[in-house]
Amino acid sequence: MAIYSFKGHIPVIHESSFIHPLAAVIGNVIIGKNCYVGPSAVIRGDWGEIILEDGVNVQENCTVHMFPGKSIRFAESAHIGHGAVIHGANLGRNCLIGMNSVIMDDAVIGDECIVGAMSFVKAEAVFESRSLIVGNPAKKIKEVSDEMIAWKTAGTKLYQQLPTDCHESMREVEPLREIPKNRPVQEDFYKTLQENKKDSSV
């Protein structure tokens, strides 16, 4: 793992969490239980403190940083989608930050909020719990429904299982040169929100 101390600060990472070897965690960073940090993500606590509570996932190509002297926190089960940039913002419990979104300094995303993909949340913006937030600049367009947050929570549970799966099964290997006859079939165990809506049992 690319884990670096900075000016005496050594990252603290619970053993149950998984930090991909191609990610970088630097300095004053505290990562709780069952967290996932994907390839090419950078969590850079050189100028301030970054806390990831239990069950947070920071996916591929995300950047987490802040201005000097700040302390930021991603509350339990916060879910940060591929390519998002979080700069000096605080994220509430069980929120979802969509892919390629940018959340700027001193913004506050409340519990169980959903931020749409490619949204831009300006500095010091504050959103109350259960806000559905989209656009540039991002605005609340409606409340997050029980159905939406249930779908989000189910997706996050997959990422909370992923650290264990990675510890147990991920290995660096040489590629095969042809497709084997007994190639494993991956499980289909998650439905999109639209598929859930079509399923009367949900």
TrEMBL record:
Q: Please, which domain of life does this record's source organism belong to?
A: Bacteria
Return the SUPFAM superfamilies for the record.
Trimeric LpxA-like enzymes
Name the chain's protein: Gamma carbonic anhydrase family protein
In terms of Pfam families, this protein maps to: Hexapep
* Species the sequence originates in: Nonlabens agnitus
Coiled coil feature spans: none
Q: Where is this region: Disordered?
A: 178-202
Task: Give the matching InterPro entries.
Answer: Hexapep (IPR001451), Transf_Hexapept/Carb_Anhydrase (IPR050484), Trimer_LpxA-like_sf (IPR011004)
User: What PANTHER family is this protein classified in?
Assistant: DYNACTIN SUBUNIT P25, GAMMA CARBONIC ANHYDRASE-LIKE 1, MITOCHONDRIAL-RELATED
